[in-house]
Amino acid sequence: MTRDRKHPRQAFSLIEVIVTMTILAVLLTFAAPSVVQTMEQSHADLAGASLRSIASAQRFYWLENRTYATTLQELIDDELVDNELLNASPRYQFSITAADAAGFTAQARRRTFNGAGNPVFNGAWSGDFQIDETGEITGDVEGRFNPVLGESPTISPGF
Length: 159
Description:
- By secondary structure, the protein is an alpha+beta fold.
- It has one domain (14-155).
- Helix content is 36%, strand content 23%.
- The protein has helices at 14-65, 72-77, and strands spanning 92-99, 104-110, 112-113, 119-120, 125-132, 137-143, 154-155.
- It has a 5-stranded antiparallel sheet with strand order 1-2-5-6-7, with helices on one face. A two-stranded antiparallel ribbon has the order 3-4.
- The radius of gyration is 25 Å and the shape is elongated.
- This is Type II secretion system protein G.
- Pfam families: N_methyl (PF07963).
- It comes from Stieleria neptunia.
- Keywords: Membrane, Methylation, Transmembrane, Transmembrane helix.
Protein backbone atom coordinates (compact mmCIF):
# COMPACT_ATOMS: atom_id res chain seq x y z
CA MET A 1 0.00 0.00 0.00
CA THR A 2 1.46 3.35 -1.02
CA ARG A 3 0.68 6.72 0.39
CA ASP A 4 0.14 9.77 -1.79
CA ARG A 5 2.57 12.40 -0.49
CA LYS A 6 0.60 15.24 -2.07
CA HIS A 7 -2.43 14.53 0.17
CA PRO A 8 -1.45 13.92 3.79
CA ARG A 9 -3.84 11.86 5.91
CA GLN A 10 -6.73 13.76 7.51
CA ALA A 11 -7.30 11.65 10.65
CA PHE A 12 -5.86 11.08 14.12
CA SER A 13 -4.16 7.86 15.04
CA LEU A 14 -5.61 5.66 17.75
CA ILE A 15 -2.65 6.46 20.02
CA GLU A 16 -3.31 10.21 19.71
CA VAL A 17 -6.96 9.73 20.64
CA ILE A 18 -6.12 7.52 23.65
CA VAL A 19 -3.51 9.98 24.95
CA THR A 20 -5.97 12.86 24.61
CA MET A 21 -8.73 10.94 26.40
CA THR A 22 -6.36 9.98 29.22
CA ILE A 23 -5.31 13.59 29.76
CA LEU A 24 -8.96 14.70 29.82
CA ALA A 25 -9.86 11.95 32.30
CA VAL A 26 -7.07 13.02 34.66
CA LEU A 27 -8.15 16.67 34.46
CA LEU A 28 -11.78 15.77 35.13
CA THR A 29 -10.78 13.65 38.12
CA PHE A 30 -9.32 16.74 39.76
CA ALA A 31 -12.03 19.16 38.61
CA ALA A 32 -15.15 17.14 39.50
CA PRO A 33 -14.84 17.36 43.32
CA SER A 34 -14.49 21.14 43.22
CA VAL A 35 -17.54 21.47 40.96
CA VAL A 36 -19.60 19.29 43.31
CA GLN A 37 -18.41 21.29 46.32
CA THR A 38 -19.25 24.58 44.58
CA MET A 39 -22.77 23.33 43.84
CA GLU A 40 -23.16 22.19 47.45
CA GLN A 41 -21.96 25.60 48.67
CA SER A 42 -24.63 27.33 46.58
CA HIS A 43 -27.31 25.11 48.13
CA ALA A 44 -25.92 25.87 51.60
CA ASP A 45 -26.08 29.60 50.87
CA LEU A 46 -29.70 29.22 49.76
CA ALA A 47 -30.50 27.31 52.96
CA GLY A 48 -28.84 30.07 54.98
CA ALA A 49 -30.92 32.72 53.23
CA SER A 50 -34.07 30.72 53.94
CA LEU A 51 -33.11 30.45 57.62
CA ARG A 52 -32.67 34.23 57.73
CA SER A 53 -36.16 34.62 56.26
CA ILE A 54 -37.54 32.33 58.95
CA ALA A 55 -35.73 34.36 61.64
CA SER A 56 -37.21 37.61 60.28
CA ALA A 57 -40.67 36.05 60.26
CA GLN A 58 -40.15 34.91 63.85
CA ARG A 59 -39.35 38.50 64.88
CA PHE A 60 -42.59 39.75 63.34
CA TYR A 61 -44.50 36.89 64.97
CA TRP A 62 -42.98 37.76 68.36
CA LEU A 63 -44.01 41.44 68.00
CA GLU A 64 -47.63 40.37 67.50
CA ASN A 65 -47.80 37.50 70.02
CA ARG A 66 -44.95 38.07 72.53
CA THR A 67 -43.81 34.51 71.89
CA TYR A 68 -42.12 32.77 69.00
CA ALA A 69 -43.95 30.37 66.67
CA THR A 70 -43.39 26.71 67.50
CA THR A 71 -43.96 25.45 63.94
CA LEU A 72 -43.35 26.76 60.45
CA GLN A 73 -47.04 26.24 59.73
CA GLU A 74 -47.88 29.01 62.22
CA LEU A 75 -45.65 31.40 60.28
CA ILE A 76 -47.25 30.28 57.01
CA ASP A 77 -50.77 30.68 58.44
CA ASP A 78 -49.94 34.23 59.58
CA GLU A 79 -48.56 34.90 56.05
CA LEU A 80 -45.12 35.74 57.42
CA VAL A 81 -43.44 32.97 55.43
CA ASP A 82 -44.42 31.80 51.97
CA ASN A 83 -45.02 28.06 51.68
CA GLU A 84 -42.67 28.09 48.68
CA LEU A 85 -39.79 29.01 50.99
CA LEU A 86 -39.84 25.46 52.29
CA ASN A 87 -39.45 24.15 48.73
CA ALA A 88 -36.81 26.68 47.67
CA SER A 89 -34.00 24.25 48.45
CA PRO A 90 -35.12 20.63 48.06
CA ARG A 91 -31.81 19.48 49.54
CA TYR A 92 -32.74 20.90 52.96
CA GLN A 93 -35.64 20.23 55.30
CA PHE A 94 -36.60 23.25 57.42
CA SER A 95 -38.14 23.09 60.89
CA ILE A 96 -38.41 24.99 64.15
CA THR A 97 -36.77 22.78 66.75
CA ALA A 98 -37.39 24.93 69.85
CA ALA A 99 -39.50 28.01 70.58
CA ASP A 100 -40.95 29.87 73.56
CA ALA A 101 -41.31 33.50 74.66
CA ALA A 102 -37.56 33.85 75.26
CA GLY A 103 -36.16 32.48 72.00
CA PHE A 104 -36.26 30.00 69.15
CA THR A 105 -34.07 27.73 67.09
CA ALA A 106 -34.80 26.93 63.45
CA GLN A 107 -32.99 24.22 61.56
CA ALA A 108 -32.13 23.39 57.95
CA ARG A 109 -31.21 19.70 57.77
CA ARG A 110 -29.38 18.32 54.71
CA ARG A 111 -31.20 15.49 53.00
CA THR A 112 -31.07 13.35 49.89
CA PHE A 113 -33.72 11.10 48.43
CA ASN A 114 -33.55 7.34 48.02
CA GLY A 115 -34.79 5.40 44.99
CA ALA A 116 -38.37 5.42 46.33
CA GLY A 117 -38.32 9.21 46.65
CA ASN A 118 -38.20 9.21 50.45
CA PRO A 119 -35.89 11.61 52.31
CA VAL A 120 -32.66 10.16 53.66
CA PHE A 121 -30.46 12.13 56.06
CA ASN A 122 -27.23 10.13 55.78
CA GLY A 123 -26.34 10.52 52.12
CA ALA A 124 -23.15 11.81 50.53
CA TRP A 125 -23.65 15.10 52.40
CA SER A 126 -25.07 15.26 55.91
CA GLY A 127 -25.43 17.80 58.69
CA ASP A 128 -27.51 20.84 59.51
CA PHE A 129 -27.53 24.59 60.04
CA GLN A 130 -29.34 26.37 62.86
CA ILE A 131 -30.37 29.96 63.46
CA ASP A 132 -31.62 31.43 66.71
CA GLU A 133 -33.25 34.66 67.89
CA THR A 134 -29.88 36.46 67.67
CA GLY A 135 -29.71 35.74 63.93
CA GLU A 136 -26.48 33.76 64.17
CA ILE A 137 -26.22 30.77 61.83
CA THR A 138 -24.24 27.83 63.20
CA GLY A 139 -23.57 24.27 62.09
CA ASP A 140 -22.08 22.73 58.99
CA VAL A 141 -22.63 20.04 56.39
CA GLU A 142 -19.93 17.48 55.74
CA GLY A 143 -19.35 15.39 52.64
CA ARG A 144 -17.90 11.93 52.35
CA PHE A 145 -14.14 11.48 52.49
CA ASN A 146 -12.55 12.49 49.20
CA PRO A 147 -9.38 10.50 48.44
CA VAL A 148 -8.27 13.02 45.80
CA LEU A 149 -8.34 15.90 48.30
CA GLY A 150 -7.42 13.70 51.27
CA GLU A 151 -10.20 15.13 53.44
CA SER A 152 -13.94 15.36 53.97
CA PRO A 153 -15.22 18.67 52.59
CA THR A 154 -17.13 20.85 55.06
CA ILE A 155 -19.67 23.46 53.98
CA SER A 156 -21.26 26.32 55.89
CA PRO A 157 -23.29 29.27 54.60
CA GLY A 158 -20.87 31.80 53.18
CA PHE A 159 -22.50 35.02 54.32
